[in-house]
Amino acid sequence: MKKLALSLVLVASVAFVSCKDTNKEAEVEATANEAIENVEETATEATEAIEETATEATEAVEATATEATEAVEATPAN
Q1: What are phi and psi of 76, to 5 degrees?
Q2: For the chain, how many structural domains are there in total?
Q3: What confidence score (pLDDT) does residue 57 get?
Q4: In this predicted model, what pLDDT tens digit does every residue of 34-72 receive, in sequence order?
Q5: 77 within some domain
Q6: Within a domain: residue 78?
Q7: Distance (Å, rounded) from C-alpha 5 to C-alpha 75?
Q8: Distance between CA 48 and CA 50 in Å, rounded?
Q9: How far is CA 26 from CA 23, 34, 35, in A?
Q10: Long-range contacts (CB closer than 8 Å, 24 or more residues apart) made by 26-35
């Protein structure tokens, strides 16, 4: 009977540790997924900011080029 009780305790402890490890794996996986989502969101925001800045820079260069062209055309020829 004592061996049976010890065997049951051993099986129960192995099952408990196994469940505990499974819970830790699930937590690690959830944390990893959250981190991936955060990185993707940050990358998307950075891409949008870069595109907006590039558009603004392009518009500024085009405006400057137009002003320079108009200034050259307005200058009387010698």
Answers
A1: -70, 145
A2: 1
A3: 96
A4: 998 888 889 999 999 999 999 999 999 999 999 999 988
A5: no
A6: no
A7: 104
A8: 5
A9: 5, 12, 14
A10: none
**DSSP result, 58-75:** HHHHHHHHHHHHHHHHHS
- Alpha-carbon distance values, 72 to 60, 61, 63 (Å): 18, 16, 14
User: pLDDT at residue 78 above 90?
Assistant: no
Q: Give domain status of residue 76, yes or no.
A: no
Token pair of 74 as six digits: 């307005």
Residue 17 has a pLDDT of 60
Residue 27 has a pLDDT of 83
Furthest-apart CA atoms within the chain: distance in Å = 117
Token pair 């870069």 is found at: 50
Within-domain flag for 55: yes
pLDDT, tens only, 11-25:
666 666 666 667 777
